[in-house]
Write a structure and sequence with these properties.
By secondary structure, the chain is α/β, with parallel strands linked by helices. It contains 15 helices and eight strands. Strands 1, 2, 3, 4, 5, 6, 7 and 8 form an eight-stranded mixed beta sheet that branches.
Length: 421
């Protein structure tokens, strides 16, 4: 996965959104060109736009909540809102604001993009998000999964931040007789029917095997080669952290067991006890927060600083393991699932940051049935009750939108080339 620097490596600075229709118009060709050029998106198909237009017409607060399965997701959502005549604001990881000699600090807020520290209690970003939704002028794009896991067919557990923003905004909107809406959106990348990505798959697979000092294993199917590589990598990590291996175990169970070992050990040392009832993303967030807070302590010894940095590296290993369920490709070996897995391996094993797409892609966007936040808040009575209920319902509807898009094309092995076994 594409690893972003944390607050100990790159200090967080907030830049409030100040969307400029002029800047949006002048830069439209550039950022739409990035979608086509850098991200190789040749076509975008949108279903369910009719769900959005009445919400805009009423002046209600609108939050667009897509899954986060690729690097172009944010630009695609800005393009969706722009096409509907309602330029959107968007929360984004603060790390993307760095670079280009500060140009992004000026440009991104005027495009409606503002930073958020996903690992801290970022009140400035939270307040800015609430103001946007309560204002009703622009929709707000939030990715409730948080990370880019490159798992388009499976939704990972949502964080509650999106629902918390929506509930706070809905309270303000109620005074004006309006409400806030959470709009579930499913987004998937697909190879065009006339494009064959298998040669690119094979070339990258050769490079991955060479990285392990293996000779390219052309006599095995691509799916077998991916799983052979995965088992080898898990075995190495088992030896490193457990001192033993479980070669006969199910791959998904081995990955989960290693992840649980790492989380339980770090939580015991940093938080006092394991938090096994929490979701993996929430456990990751709390551990990062604890480590970064301890690193900020001027009294921390060099030995403690080294230990904290090792733990942050191990937290990132947990994030990586969470993005590899172990059965994602074998369950349904589609071209798209294979591409997602190979792109992650390109980043994690070969260090390509971020990995480029493995061919031209079409994007399918399915807009699901919006959730009336005000109605949920009224029926539940309290914010602390409404927020988890909304998160659960949003997750259900987002997954339903993904299921409506359906699976991609199944992978069919290429016939052996002349001279190959």
């Amino acid at each position: 996965m594409h690893r972003l620097p944390l607050a100990d490596e790159l200090p967080y600075r907030f830049h409030p959104p100040r969307i400029s229709p002029l800047v949006v118009r002048l830069t439209r060709g550039y950022w739409r060109g990035m979608v086509r050029g850098v991200h190789q998106v040749v076509d975008v198909e949108i279903q369910g736009q009719e769900q959005l237009l009445p919400l805009f017409d009423r002046g209600d607060g609108v939050m667009l909540c897509p899954n986060h399965c690729g690097r172009a997701d944010g630009l695609l959502m800005l393009g969706l809102a722009d096409d509907l005549g309602k330029p959107a604001c968007a929360m984004a990881a603060y790390q993307i604001f760095e670079g280009n000699a500060g140009l992004r600090h000026w440009l991104f807020p005027r495009l409606g993009i503002f930073p958020v520290d996903r690992e801290g209690s970022d009140l400035k970003a939270f307040k800015a998000a609430v103001e946007i939704v309560a204002g009703g002028e622009h929709p707000l794009v939030v990715f409730p999964e948080g990370e880019v896991y490159l798992l388009a067919d499976r939704l990972t557990p949502l964080r509650e931040g999106a629902a918390a923003i929506a509930v706070t905004a809905a309270k303000r909107l109620a005074d004006r007789g309006k409400t806030a809406w959470l709009v579930p959106i499913g987004l998937k990348y697909r190879f065009p029917d006339d494009h064959d990505p298998r040669p690119a798959f094979e070339r990258l697979m050769d490079s991955l095997e060479l990285r392990l000092t293996w000779s390219p294993r052309h006599g095995r199917s691509l799916v077998e080669r991916i799983y052979d590589l995965a088992r080898a990598l898990v075995t190495l990590k088992e030896l490193e952290y457990l001192g033993t291996t479980h070669p006969n175990g199910c791959l998904s169970e081995r990955i989960a067991a290693l992840r649980t070992h790492l989380l339980n050990d770090m939580e015991t040392r940093r938080l006092g006890k394991p938090h096994e009832s929490a979701t993996v993303p929430d456990r990751i967030k709390e551990l990062r927060r604890a480590c970064l807070s301890a690193l900020a302590d001027s009294k921390a010894s060099p030995a403690e600083i080294d230990s904290l940095r090792r733990d942050l590296n191990d937290v990132y290993l947990v994030v990586q393991s969470f993005s590899y369920p172990g059965d994602y490709v074998s369950e349904s070996p589609t071209l798209d699932r294979i591409a997602e897995t190979l792109m992650k391996l390109d980043e994690d094993l070969l260090g390509v940051q971020p990995a480029p797409p493995l061919g031209p892609r079409r994007v399918k966007i399915q807009i699901g049935e919006p959730i009336d936040v005000g109605a949920c808040l009224n029926s539940s009575g309290k914010s602390r009750v409404a927020i988890p209920l909304l998160t659960t319902e949003l997750e259900r509807r987002m997954q339903a939108a993904l299921d409506t898009i359906g699976p991609g094309r199944l992978y069919v092995p290429e016939p052996p080339a002349s001279g190959r076994p």
